[in-house]
């Protein structure tokens, strides 16, 4: 689709879709995963949700 200049990495001027969680899911105890909260949601480089 030739979007290399717009997507593919987190850099100024590029689009980004990602979430920020309140804990690291790779290191927290399995029983704590269910209590994880989304702190921010970003779509196309814009913050669309935040606590």
Detailed description of the structure:
This protein has 51 residues and is mainly β. The chain has one domain. The protein contains no helices and three strands. Strands 1-2-3 form a three-stranded antiparallel β-sheet, with no helix packed on it. The model has no long low-confidence stretch (mean pLDDT 89).
Question: How would you concisely characterize the structure shown here?
Answer:
With 51 residues, the protein is mainly beta. Helices cover 0% and strands 29% of the residues. The chain has strands at 18-21, 38-43, 46-50.
User: β content, as a range?
Assistant: 25-35%
Oligomerization category of the chains in this entry = single chain
- Please summarize the sheet with the most strands: 3 strands, antiparallel
The whole-number mean of residue pLDDT values reads 89
Distance between the termini: 34 Å
Please give the share of residues in helix.
Answer: under 10%
Radius of gyration: 14 Å
Q: How do the strands line up in the largest sheet?
A: 1-2-3
Question: Top keywords for this entry?
Answer:
mainly beta; 51 residues; 3 strands
Present the secondary structure layout.
Blueprint: E1 18-21, E2 38-43, E3 46-50
Antiparallel strand pairs: 1-2, 2-3
